[in-house]
Amino acid sequence: MGFKKIEAIIRTEKLDEVRMAVEGVGIVGMTVTEVKGRGSQKGILLEWRAGEYRVEFLPKLKLELVVHDVDLEKAVEALSAAARTGKVGDGKIFIYSMEDIVRVRTGERGRPAV
Ligand SMILES: Nc1ncnc2c1ncn2[C@@H]1O[C@H](COP(=O)(O)OP(=O)(O)OP(=O)(O)O)[C@@H](O)[C@H]1O
Ligand SMILES: [Mg+2]
Fold first, then answer.
1. Ligand 1 geometric centre to CA of 17 (Å)
2. What is the pTM of this model?
């Protein structure tokens, strides 16, 4: 049994919904970073009367959550359901193996430190 890091790129306006959804399955700790990114649509094409231009990178949020293996599936399900609109740009979830976790205040390691 180990831990995973969930790195999720989501729409900025979905943060509260995602936070509440993962809290609903018992996941509280997370890190949020403002990022810019692009997916398969290569940014977005804006059309103006004067012509069109491409915005190559769009603002997104990156969430990082470290969870125990037994909590992984419910966390990913809650997160993706809350982040989904069904339109392009809903984001992506990357899952990494994690070696260990230390709670700095107590020195706890592993599961109690999550
Ligand atoms: N292959 C990738 N590697 C790293 N980051 C990615 C990758 N694909 C998407 N992202 C990140 O996720 C954000 C949202 O991507 P997006 O949801 O548009 O992916 P997509 O593959 O184009 O899917 P969709 O067709 O549903 O839009 C991007 O702005 C970028 O930050
Ligand atoms: Mg896209």
1. 19
2. 0.95
